[in-house]
Amino acid sequence: MKRSLLSLALLMFVGYSASAQKVEFEEFDLDNGLHVILHQDNTAPVVATTVMYDVGGKDREEGRTGFAHFFEHLLFEGSENIERGEFMKIIPANGGTFNATTSQDRTYYYEIFPSNKLELGLWLESERMLHPVIDQVGVDTQNEVVKEEKRQSYDRPYGKLLEVIGNNLFEVHPYKDPNIGFMEDLDAATLEEFNAYFEKYYGPNNAVLIVAGDIDKEKTKELVKQYFSAVKPKPEVVRNFPKETPITETKKVTAYDPNIQIPAILAAYRLPGQASRDAYVLDMISSYLSGGKSSVLYKKLVDNQQQALAVQAVNLGQVDYNIFALFALPQGETTLDTLLAEMDEEIAKMQTELISERDYQKLQNQFENQFVNSNSSVAGIASSLATYYLLYGDVNLINTQLDLYRSITREEIRDVAAKYLSPNQRVEIQYLPKKDEK
């Protein structure tokens, strides 16, 4: 399955106004603990049925990485009432589309159907939750699928960047391991371990069901109860991940990748989780630095000084810790140290000076546009509702998050940059082509 939620943004089944509008929703819980959120919009005959489970790559034991991502695939194998391989045939045969994604923090399944197929979507997701078939044939089949995904997505130029950052930025938290896991861990896992993983994490009380689109809410409530009430709750998932010690001294690392020809420089910071206000400010900082060809770093290093082939600043949102990373590829004879110094120069300006009013308004416009686009379809709204509930603990952020961004001041941008983005708070990684073996 595709690992990016970008595909959801491309499902523009329903057009909305170009300005942010309030999204109405209704929440309720089943007796088994399943949280349900309904959003009714009858402007087009489309419905999204989605389930987000509170399980991701970080939920693993040492030596057993990658289980959550593996289950993203495995739970399409079939159920007691769906023959092997039929799950992915039923949906397109009924005019629908589907996918699933896994991050370090959650797993998300969704189907988009014509609204007269709502009951089918609910049945499919209840089958996945109630009685999937987890057997050795399915495990062996999906093991090969995951290995092929790894070859295509990770074993390609710069495909291991996030893995290298995580491995060097985290020492004890499970974010240190790649979301896809290590293939030797999956090879060594037993069928009993996979079944135990399902029993631990895939209960109704560890999930949220979203139904969005052309629905009748009262009828939908009855259908949800009909299909999901039989699912038994499971013991509460208790997490007690170790805390990372703050970085107070620059850590310098060299990493090698046989799939690249051009070296890269990385500088990564471990920052507060995505629900914190500072994380929102850091979103704006990353956009200011590299959000498009008119951004500060792109104009400076790519256009004007022609020192970089590419440059980027990213604030990767996660529940426990965000990752803020700088990345650049050199052009010509430019050294990696030079690139890092040039990027640091722009950050230092942000730490002592206010960005211009013009740049500030540009940022506000960018975030308003991103926010509106993310909720421009029933698929996008369903994803937002699930994410805000499960990962942020506040469903109504779908209506208030833009106001939060609007409330961020230029002074706050300066102060947050000064608080978190100093060289002694980061890991610097020289990412190099594999050394010649003689």
TrEMBL record:
Biological-process GO terms, alphabetical: proteolysis
Residue stretches making up the Peptidase M16 N-terminal domain: 36-173
Lineage: superkingdom: Bacteria
InterPro entries: Metalloenz_LuxS/M16, Pept_M16_N, Peptidase_M16, Peptidase_M16_C
Keyword Hydrolase carried by entry: yes
Keywords: Hydrolase, Metalloprotease, Protease, Signal, Zinc
SUPFAM superfamilies membership: LuxS/MPP-like metallohydrolase
Span of domain Peptidase M16 C-terminal: 189-366
Record GO terms (molecular function): metal ion binding; metallopeptidase activity
Annotated signal sequence range: 1-20
Similarity field: Belongs to the peptidase M16 family.
Protein name: Predicted Zn-dependent peptidase
